[in-house]
Design a protein that fits this description.
Blueprint lengths: L3 E5 L3 H21 L4 H7 L2 H14 L6 E7 L2 E12 L2 E9 L8 H15 L4 E7 L3 H9 L3 E3 L13 E7 L1
Pfam families: Acetyltransf_1
InterPro entries: Acetyltransferase_Enz, Acyl_CoA_acyltransferase, GNAT_dom
Protein name: GNAT family N-acetyltransferase
Length: 170
């Protein structure tokens, strides 16, 4: 593996790279779960998804949030972000690592950067959701100290059976 860097995404080029990684994540879901495309579209509504990507810098703005970009030998390979979900509680969102960087600790490094920043920003806990089929992500979150919990937001009935929720103290 080459040189891995994890930094806050700030410049327009860095934010564009994060948006591309988010699009790659949605495509990864389509490719890996073709039988659940309608569910993916429900969670990542195609019409709202691009608007969400445009708003990422505002949704995850410092000092209440953060967007991290992982680079391997200078090339963007992963991202994660968090924002305030409730007072003293951060929510981790959109963790994704491209295929070329999987298995090299990039996801762990991204999560650790997000957790450390949330802790430094005086959050007391962090929450996240993930899909029931994303077993590698579930294992990662458990290794990082996250524990399953009940839903912390209103979940559409069509998504109740495919989402898992996690939380950990910071």
């Amino acid at each position: 593996m080459g040189e891995l860097t994890i930094e806050l995404a700030k410049s327009p080029a860095e934010i564009a790279a994060v948006r591309d990684l988010c699009r790659s994540f949605r495509q990864w879901l389509y490719d890996n779960y073709p039988q659940h495309r309608s569910v993916v579209d429900l969670y990542y509504n195609p019409q709202k998804f691009e608007a969400l990507l445009i708003d990422l810098p505002q949704i995850h703005a410092r000092p209440k949030g953060a967007i991290f970009l992982a680079r391997l030998d200078g090339e963007p390979v992963g991202c994660v972000m968090h924002h305030e979900q409730a007072p003293d509680i951060a929510e981790m969102k959109r963790l994704f690592v491209s295929a070329v960087a999987r298995g090299h600790g990039v996801a762990v490094a991204l999560c650790e950067a997000s957790i450390a920043q949330a802790r430094a920003d005086d959050y007391h806990s962090m929450r996240l959701d993930t899909g029931i089929f994303q077993t590698a992500a579930q294992g990662l979150y458990r290794r990082l100290g996250f524990r399953e919990r009940n839903a912390y937001y209103q979940v559409p009935p069509e998504l109740e059976q495919i989402l898992l929720f996690f939380e950990r103290e910071l």
